[in-house]
């Protein structure tokens, strides 16, 4: 089993990564001086797959588990789901030292983390991420929250877990499309922080897609190390943490234009990364090689890399309405070389238009 530590002073915590380790979670929990009551927040599909393993071992270890289900899907990442969970915790008399386990993908992790941040002004929580996105990204770093009808992730809190427990074996049951979409965030880490990791992904993408155990563990460890390094340096996104948004500026705009219905987040991020790399090349910030390798790796993994044709004026408008816009300046994270990015504000409209249009494919948004 591998271990990555997120260094945040008194809020530091361990991420454990291994194969077939779901069974050993309660041993680790017993060392954390938690109260007896534990809520397992998950969805019906994951209850069937993994809920029993967690529930039984907690009981066996002397905990009092309560299973709480939220229907699967982004549309349930709402304050209503949070409220439903509060009701159960209050009825079951959960106390300050009671804890919460988030068993699921990013949706469950974000909801459960937000409940933990706010119930009784904060109770300990443990992330047991089951999707690739959650294992390499959302379970680490303490961003928790829910959507509002007027926008995604508008309600939330920074609140760190006390433990992250990652069993890569559970990726065997993850739908293929989810796995591939999750890989976009992994490619992102290579581009923003580690060229050797990028090489590793190029050399091993076939093994990744066939779920080779050792390769998966290395991939998750490396991703968690990079995320943890960035979060430790800038927990509340005052500076460096913004580099994690590489590919997200245009990616978010594509998600908005398509009303979040056409593409998974990672799929939109992949298009956004390729477009950002193209922009960097057009602006003379990086070599052509950086753009070409980013595009090629995404394509080999099975991610779409060309953007369906869209009205540039609409894209420009949406970019300026994003919640990350400060003083009307759109911020782009652009690669200087593989493993290094810089933050650029005020990109020229015509250069952006040229870069976006050179990434167009032949189909249109419907
Ligand atoms: N907090 C953060 O820092 C952060 C970072 C990135 C994304 N997010 C959030 O994460 C969410 C997306 O997360 P996601 O991509 O994991 O989506 P998700 O949580 O909806 O999971 C995707 C689907 O896969 C299923 N699933 C998960 N694990 C499975 C497994 N092992 N076997 C079978 N099915 C499984 C889920 O039930 C769901 O249907 C978004 O809401 C996004 O805003 C948060």
Task: List the SSEs and their pairings.
Blueprint: E1 2-6, E2 13-18, H1 25-30, E3 37-42, H2 44-60, E4 64-69, H3 79-91, E5 99-104, H4 106-118, E6 125-129, H5 132-138, E7 143-148, E8 151-158, E9 163-167, H6 176-193, H7 195-209, H8 213-233, H9 248-257, H10 265-282, H11 288-301, E10 307-309, H12 312-321, E11 331-337, E12 340-345, H13 349-358, E13 360-364
Helix pairs in contact: 3-4, 5-6, 5-8, 6-7, 6-8, 6-10, 6-11, 7-8, 9-10, 9-12, 10-11, 10-13
Bound molecules: nicotinamide-adenine-dinucleotide.
Nicotinamide-adenine-dinucleotide binds next to helix 2, helix 4 and helix 5.
Assembly context of the chains: single chain
Quick check: average pLDDT? 95
What's the gyration radius in Å? Answer: 20 Å
Assign the CATH class of the largest domain. Mainly Alpha
**The CATH topology of the largest domain, please?**
Dehydroquinate synthase-like, alpha domain
- Helical amount: 40-55%
Class by SSE composition: alpha/beta
Bound molecule kinds, no repeats = nicotinamide-adenine-dinucleotide
User: N-to-C SSE series?
Assistant: EEHEHEHEHEHEEEHHHHHHEHEEHE
